[in-house]
Amino acid sequence: MLATILLAALSGATPAVQPGTYEYTATYQGVQSGRSTVTARRDGDTTTIQESANGAINDVQVAAAVTLTLDTDLIPTIYNGSYDSGAAHAVITVTVGKTVATLTGTTTYGMPLTFPLKPPARHFVIIEPGLMAGLFGLPAQMQAWQYDPILAIAPSVAKSENFELDTTAKPQRPDGVPAQDTQITFGGQLAFTIWYDPATYVPDAVVVPSQNAVLTRVRK
Length: 220
Hints:
globular
């Protein structure tokens, strides 16, 4: 496994998001609150990550279907999301440029909204609270981008936040996470940790301590 990673680094090859279909469960305050299916595929130089999720928040049924497209360097180019919460329905698109991302859609926020790339961030990512699509490719993206700081956009709440790698963090390994998994932890107001397989970059768990929230891969 280590030899594979070293060979990839020496060859200068961009890490790849592992194609396949993956199941995840979400827990909040220790109670299972949702479930999602993530499908990753490659079409030439393009990587597409799709997610279908459903669950309940405060006894309200919620559902989401999202698609995230990455270019040859795993940089996001476009995100499309469809959300249902009770009787409410919203459709959101995020178009990502080199220095500005633009959010449009049917939400209560004024549209369009723009998000400039704020230093020290050097790359955009799309991370929707409670969903896996934007987190799924993050281990491979961070490796490809040499762990540069990122600006994360949360489409449904029309907010953004800078994140940097926290190299001093020593998070506790969650139950069920394989022993060979490694982790990346991001500091900030909503600090989080991704545990992933270093051979495939596939996440096995995402932990957000401040929210007591965990996304866990269902291993079959």
